[in-house]
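>> received
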Amino acid sequence: MNKFYKRFLILIVLVLVISGTVIYTTVDINTLKNLTQFKTWSIALAILAVSLGLFFDGSRLMHLVKISDEKITLYQAVQVVFGNYFLALLTPGATGGAVAQLMFLRHAGVPTGKAAVLVIVRTLLSILFLVLCMPFIFMHDAGIVPGISNDTLMAITLTAFVVIIAIVVGARRGYLDYLVIRIARHAKKERRCKIIAFYRDTKSAIALLAASPKAMLLVFAESGLNLLCIYAIVPCLLLGLGVTDADWYSVMGRMIFLNMLLYFTPTPGGSGIAEGGFVLLFSDTVPAGTVGIIAVCWRLIAEYIPFFIGLYYTLTVFGRDFLNRQLLR
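>> returned
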Protein backbone atom coordinates (compact mmCIF):
# COMPACT_ATOMS: atom_id res chain seq x y z
CA MET A 1 0.00 0.00 0.00
CA ASN A 2 1.53 3.34 -1.02
CA LYS A 3 1.90 6.36 1.22
CA PHE A 4 -1.17 8.12 -0.09
CA TYR A 5 -3.51 5.24 0.69
CA LYS A 6 -1.90 4.68 4.08
CA ARG A 7 -2.35 8.29 5.06
CA PHE A 8 -5.88 8.37 3.65
CA LEU A 9 -6.83 5.22 5.58
CA ILE A 10 -5.29 6.56 8.79
CA LEU A 11 -7.26 9.79 8.40
CA ILE A 12 -10.55 7.97 7.86
CA VAL A 13 -9.97 5.75 10.91
CA LEU A 14 -8.90 8.77 12.99
CA VAL A 15 -12.00 10.75 12.02
CA LEU A 16 -14.32 7.81 12.73
CA VAL A 17 -12.72 7.10 16.11
CA ILE A 18 -12.74 10.75 17.17
CA SER A 19 -16.30 11.34 15.96
CA GLY A 20 -17.57 8.17 17.63
CA THR A 21 -15.79 8.98 20.88
CA VAL A 22 -17.09 12.54 20.97
CA ILE A 23 -20.68 11.43 20.35
CA TYR A 24 -20.47 8.49 22.78
CA THR A 25 -19.09 10.59 25.64
CA THR A 26 -21.62 13.41 25.23
CA VAL A 27 -24.95 11.64 24.69
CA ASP A 28 -27.36 11.37 27.62
CA ILE A 29 -31.00 10.75 28.41
CA ASN A 30 -32.01 14.00 26.65
CA THR A 31 -30.30 13.27 23.34
CA LEU A 32 -33.12 11.45 21.54
CA LYS A 33 -35.75 13.93 22.74
CA ASN A 34 -33.77 16.93 21.46
CA LEU A 35 -32.89 15.28 18.15
CA THR A 36 -36.54 14.47 17.39
CA GLN A 37 -37.20 18.22 17.44
CA PHE A 38 -34.40 18.91 14.96
CA LYS A 39 -35.47 20.80 11.82
CA THR A 40 -33.87 19.40 8.66
CA TRP A 41 -34.05 22.77 6.90
CA SER A 42 -31.18 23.93 9.12
CA ILE A 43 -28.85 21.52 7.31
CA ALA A 44 -29.72 23.18 4.00
CA LEU A 45 -29.11 26.55 5.65
CA ALA A 46 -25.72 25.37 6.92
CA ILE A 47 -24.76 24.10 3.45
CA LEU A 48 -25.80 27.47 2.02
CA ALA A 49 -23.59 29.21 4.58
CA VAL A 50 -20.52 27.11 3.73
CA SER A 51 -21.24 27.56 0.01
CA LEU A 52 -21.17 31.34 0.46
CA GLY A 53 -17.93 30.99 2.41
CA LEU A 54 -16.36 28.99 -0.40
CA PHE A 55 -17.59 31.56 -2.92
CA PHE A 56 -15.83 34.37 -1.05
CA ASP A 57 -12.73 32.19 -0.76
CA GLY A 58 -12.61 31.72 -4.53
CA SER A 59 -13.44 35.37 -5.16
CA ARG A 60 -10.60 36.65 -2.99
CA LEU A 61 -8.21 34.26 -4.73
CA MET A 62 -9.20 35.59 -8.15
CA HIS A 63 -8.77 39.18 -6.96
CA LEU A 64 -5.34 38.33 -5.52
CA VAL A 65 -4.25 36.71 -8.77
CA LYS A 66 -5.42 39.79 -10.65
CA ILE A 67 -3.40 42.06 -8.33
CA SER A 68 -0.31 39.98 -9.15
CA ASP A 69 -0.91 40.60 -12.89
CA GLU A 70 -1.86 36.99 -13.56
CA LYS A 71 -5.19 35.42 -14.48
CA ILE A 72 -7.05 32.25 -13.61
CA THR A 73 -10.58 31.04 -14.41
CA LEU A 74 -13.33 30.53 -11.86
CA TYR A 75 -13.04 26.76 -12.33
CA GLN A 76 -9.32 26.89 -11.58
CA ALA A 77 -10.01 28.98 -8.46
CA VAL A 78 -12.50 26.32 -7.34
CA GLN A 79 -9.81 23.66 -7.75
CA VAL A 80 -7.37 25.67 -5.62
CA VAL A 81 -9.94 26.18 -2.84
CA PHE A 82 -11.01 22.54 -2.61
CA GLY A 83 -7.46 21.23 -3.10
CA ASN A 84 -6.51 23.25 -0.05
CA TYR A 85 -9.18 21.47 2.02
CA PHE A 86 -8.02 18.07 0.81
CA LEU A 87 -4.34 18.21 1.67
CA ALA A 88 -4.87 20.39 4.76
CA LEU A 89 -6.87 17.57 6.32
CA LEU A 90 -4.25 14.97 5.39
CA THR A 91 -1.27 16.70 6.96
CA PRO A 92 -0.31 17.82 10.50
CA GLY A 93 -1.01 21.49 11.16
CA ALA A 94 -2.81 21.72 7.79
CA THR A 95 0.58 22.39 6.15
CA GLY A 96 -0.39 20.40 3.08
CA GLY A 97 -3.03 22.98 2.22
CA ALA A 98 -0.35 25.44 1.16
CA VAL A 99 1.28 22.75 -1.00
CA ALA A 100 -2.04 22.01 -2.70
CA GLN A 101 -2.71 25.68 -3.41
CA LEU A 102 0.76 26.07 -4.89
CA MET A 103 0.29 23.01 -7.10
CA PHE A 104 -3.06 24.08 -8.49
CA LEU A 105 -1.92 27.67 -9.05
CA ARG A 106 1.10 26.43 -10.96
CA HIS A 107 -1.17 24.13 -13.00
CA ALA A 108 -3.32 27.19 -13.77
CA GLY A 109 -0.29 28.96 -15.23
CA VAL A 110 0.74 31.16 -12.30
CA PRO A 111 4.57 31.22 -11.95
CA THR A 112 5.92 29.38 -8.91
CA GLY A 113 7.26 32.51 -7.20
CA LYS A 114 3.99 34.40 -7.52
CA ALA A 115 1.98 31.33 -6.53
CA ALA A 116 3.99 31.01 -3.30
CA VAL A 117 3.41 34.69 -2.54
CA LEU A 118 -0.34 34.38 -3.14
CA VAL A 119 -0.57 31.39 -0.78
CA ILE A 120 1.24 33.32 1.97
CA VAL A 121 -0.96 36.40 1.47
CA ARG A 122 -4.14 34.31 1.76
CA THR A 123 -2.95 32.83 5.03
CA LEU A 124 -1.74 36.15 6.44
CA LEU A 125 -5.03 37.90 5.72
CA SER A 126 -7.07 35.13 7.35
CA ILE A 127 -4.92 35.12 10.48
CA LEU A 128 -4.91 38.93 10.62
CA PHE A 129 -8.72 39.01 10.48
CA LEU A 130 -8.99 36.49 13.32
CA VAL A 131 -6.41 38.34 15.44
CA LEU A 132 -8.27 41.64 14.97
CA CYS A 133 -11.50 39.95 16.12
CA MET A 134 -9.99 38.63 19.36
CA PRO A 135 -10.17 41.82 21.50
CA PHE A 136 -13.88 42.23 20.71
CA ILE A 137 -14.49 38.61 21.67
CA PHE A 138 -12.65 38.85 24.99
CA MET A 139 -14.38 42.10 25.93
CA HIS A 140 -17.81 40.52 25.41
CA ASP A 141 -17.40 36.87 26.49
CA ALA A 142 -16.06 36.52 30.02
CA GLY A 143 -14.31 33.26 30.90
CA ILE A 144 -14.18 31.86 27.39
CA VAL A 145 -11.38 29.49 28.45
CA PRO A 146 -11.78 27.95 31.94
CA GLY A 147 -8.80 28.73 34.17
CA ILE A 148 -7.44 31.54 32.00
CA SER A 149 -8.64 35.09 32.51
CA ASN A 150 -9.72 37.21 29.58
CA ASP A 151 -7.12 39.80 30.61
CA THR A 152 -4.40 37.19 30.06
CA LEU A 153 -5.88 36.18 26.70
CA MET A 154 -6.14 39.85 25.72
CA ALA A 155 -2.49 40.41 26.62
CA ILE A 156 -1.45 37.36 24.57
CA THR A 157 -3.48 38.59 21.59
CA LEU A 158 -2.10 42.12 21.74
CA THR A 159 1.43 40.74 22.06
CA ALA A 160 0.87 38.50 19.03
CA PHE A 161 -0.50 41.48 17.07
CA VAL A 162 2.52 43.63 17.96
CA VAL A 163 4.87 40.78 16.99
CA ILE A 164 3.08 40.38 13.63
CA ILE A 165 3.37 44.11 12.94
CA ALA A 166 7.05 44.08 13.96
CA ILE A 167 7.76 41.16 11.63
CA VAL A 168 5.92 42.86 8.76
CA VAL A 169 7.78 46.15 9.24
CA GLY A 170 11.09 44.39 9.84
CA ALA A 171 10.77 42.27 6.71
CA ARG A 172 9.49 45.18 4.62
CA ARG A 173 12.43 47.44 5.54
CA GLY A 174 15.06 44.72 5.63
CA TYR A 175 15.67 44.83 9.38
CA LEU A 176 15.22 41.07 9.65
CA ASP A 177 17.55 40.14 6.79
CA TYR A 178 20.62 39.79 8.99
CA LEU A 179 18.76 37.74 11.62
CA VAL A 180 17.31 35.33 9.04
CA ILE A 181 20.73 34.86 7.42
CA ARG A 182 22.29 34.10 10.81
CA ILE A 183 19.58 31.53 11.55
CA ALA A 184 19.95 29.96 8.12
CA ARG A 185 23.72 29.62 8.50
CA HIS A 186 23.27 27.40 11.54
CA ALA A 187 20.74 25.14 9.80
CA LYS A 188 21.39 22.14 7.57
CA LYS A 189 21.78 22.85 3.87
CA GLU A 190 18.31 21.64 2.84
CA ARG A 191 16.60 23.49 5.68
CA ARG A 192 18.73 26.55 5.01
CA CYS A 193 17.37 26.84 1.47
CA LYS A 194 13.80 26.47 2.73
CA ILE A 195 14.29 29.20 5.34
CA ILE A 196 15.71 31.64 2.81
CA ALA A 197 13.01 30.82 0.24
CA PHE A 198 10.21 31.23 2.78
CA TYR A 199 11.59 34.54 3.99
CA ARG A 200 11.96 35.77 0.41
CA ASP A 201 8.38 34.78 -0.40
CA THR A 202 7.14 36.43 2.80
CA LYS A 203 8.87 39.70 1.87
CA SER A 204 7.30 39.51 -1.57
CA ALA A 205 3.89 38.86 -0.01
CA ILE A 206 4.23 41.90 2.24
CA ALA A 207 5.31 43.99 -0.74
CA LEU A 208 2.23 42.81 -2.64
CA LEU A 209 0.00 43.80 0.28
CA ALA A 210 1.54 47.26 0.41
CA ALA A 211 1.51 47.85 -3.36
CA SER A 212 -2.28 47.81 -3.80
CA PRO A 213 -3.89 48.91 -0.51
CA LYS A 214 -7.39 49.52 -1.90
CA ALA A 215 -7.53 46.19 -3.71
CA MET A 216 -6.15 44.47 -0.63
CA LEU A 217 -8.91 45.98 1.52
CA LEU A 218 -11.43 44.23 -0.73
CA VAL A 219 -9.51 40.95 -0.43
CA PHE A 220 -9.33 41.40 3.35
CA ALA A 221 -13.10 41.95 3.50
CA GLU A 222 -13.66 38.82 1.41
CA SER A 223 -11.34 36.89 3.75
CA GLY A 224 -13.49 37.95 6.70
CA LEU A 225 -16.74 37.06 4.92
CA ASN A 226 -15.28 33.70 3.90
CA LEU A 227 -14.50 32.81 7.52
CA LEU A 228 -17.71 34.21 9.03
CA CYS A 229 -19.92 32.34 6.55
CA ILE A 230 -18.18 29.06 7.32
CA TYR A 231 -18.39 29.65 11.08
CA ALA A 232 -22.13 30.40 10.65
CA ILE A 233 -22.68 26.66 10.15
CA VAL A 234 -22.99 26.24 13.91
CA PRO A 235 -25.68 28.93 14.44
CA CYS A 236 -27.62 27.33 11.55
CA LEU A 237 -27.51 23.93 13.26
CA LEU A 238 -28.46 25.44 16.62
CA LEU A 239 -31.53 27.04 15.03
CA GLY A 240 -32.48 23.59 13.79
CA LEU A 241 -32.42 22.37 17.40
CA GLY A 242 -34.75 25.15 18.43
CA VAL A 243 -32.13 27.37 20.04
CA THR A 244 -33.38 30.90 19.43
CA ASP A 245 -32.33 32.76 22.56
CA ALA A 246 -28.56 32.15 22.37
CA ASP A 247 -26.03 34.96 22.54
CA TRP A 248 -25.12 34.77 18.85
CA TYR A 249 -22.27 37.25 19.31
CA SER A 250 -20.66 34.85 21.78
CA VAL A 251 -21.39 31.83 19.57
CA MET A 252 -19.62 33.37 16.58
CA GLY A 253 -16.87 34.69 18.85
CA ARG A 254 -16.17 31.25 20.23
CA MET A 255 -16.12 29.80 16.72
CA ILE A 256 -13.54 32.44 15.74
CA PHE A 257 -11.48 31.68 18.86
CA LEU A 258 -11.59 27.92 18.24
CA ASN A 259 -10.65 28.19 14.57
CA MET A 260 -7.80 30.55 15.45
CA LEU A 261 -6.38 27.80 17.65
CA LEU A 262 -6.75 25.25 14.84
CA TYR A 263 -4.18 27.15 12.75
CA PHE A 264 -1.53 26.01 15.23
CA THR A 265 -2.60 22.45 16.05
CA PRO A 266 -0.25 19.53 15.24
CA THR A 267 -2.98 17.03 14.30
CA PRO A 268 -4.14 16.54 10.68
CA GLY A 269 -6.70 19.25 10.00
CA GLY A 270 -7.06 19.87 13.74
CA SER A 271 -8.83 16.50 14.16
CA GLY A 272 -9.59 15.76 17.79
CA ILE A 273 -8.70 19.24 19.01
CA ALA A 274 -11.52 20.77 16.95
CA GLU A 275 -14.16 18.42 18.32
CA GLY A 276 -12.83 18.54 21.88
CA GLY A 277 -12.57 22.33 21.80
CA PHE A 278 -16.11 22.58 20.47
CA VAL A 279 -17.48 20.43 23.30
CA LEU A 280 -15.59 22.54 25.86
CA LEU A 281 -16.79 25.87 24.45
CA PHE A 282 -20.40 25.01 23.60
CA SER A 283 -21.56 22.54 26.24
CA ASP A 284 -23.65 25.24 27.93
CA THR A 285 -25.14 26.57 24.68
CA VAL A 286 -26.19 23.41 22.83
CA PRO A 287 -29.25 21.46 24.08
CA ALA A 288 -28.37 18.64 26.47
CA GLY A 289 -26.88 15.53 24.94
CA THR A 290 -26.34 17.01 21.47
CA VAL A 291 -23.06 18.93 21.72
CA GLY A 292 -21.00 16.02 20.37
CA ILE A 293 -23.40 15.42 17.49
CA ILE A 294 -23.36 19.11 16.54
CA ALA A 295 -19.55 19.10 16.73
CA VAL A 296 -19.36 16.18 14.28
CA CYS A 297 -21.97 17.73 11.97
CA TRP A 298 -20.00 20.99 11.95
CA ARG A 299 -16.82 19.18 10.96
CA LEU A 300 -18.66 17.12 8.34
CA ILE A 301 -20.13 20.16 6.59
CA ALA A 302 -17.17 22.51 7.04
CA GLU A 303 -14.28 20.12 6.43
CA TYR A 304 -15.08 16.57 5.36
CA ILE A 305 -17.42 17.28 2.43
CA PRO A 306 -14.99 19.86 0.93
CA PHE A 307 -12.21 17.33 1.61
CA PHE A 308 -13.78 14.71 -0.68
CA ILE A 309 -14.47 17.30 -3.37
CA GLY A 310 -10.81 18.33 -3.13
CA LEU A 311 -9.79 14.67 -3.38
CA TYR A 312 -11.74 14.39 -6.64
CA TYR A 313 -10.10 17.48 -8.15
CA THR A 314 -6.63 16.46 -7.02
CA LEU A 315 -6.85 12.97 -8.47
CA THR A 316 -8.52 14.26 -11.64
CA VAL A 317 -5.90 16.92 -12.33
CA PHE A 318 -2.71 15.23 -11.10
CA GLY A 319 -3.48 11.52 -10.76
CA ARG A 320 -2.74 9.14 -7.91
CA ASP A 321 0.84 8.41 -8.95
CA PHE A 322 1.79 12.07 -9.07
CA LEU A 323 0.16 12.68 -5.70
CA ASN A 324 2.02 9.82 -4.10
CA ARG A 325 5.41 10.77 -5.56
CA GLN A 326 5.31 14.53 -5.13
CA LEU A 327 3.13 15.34 -2.15
CA LEU A 328 3.36 12.60 0.40
CA ARG A 329 6.92 11.43 0.11
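>> The radius of gyration is 21 Å.
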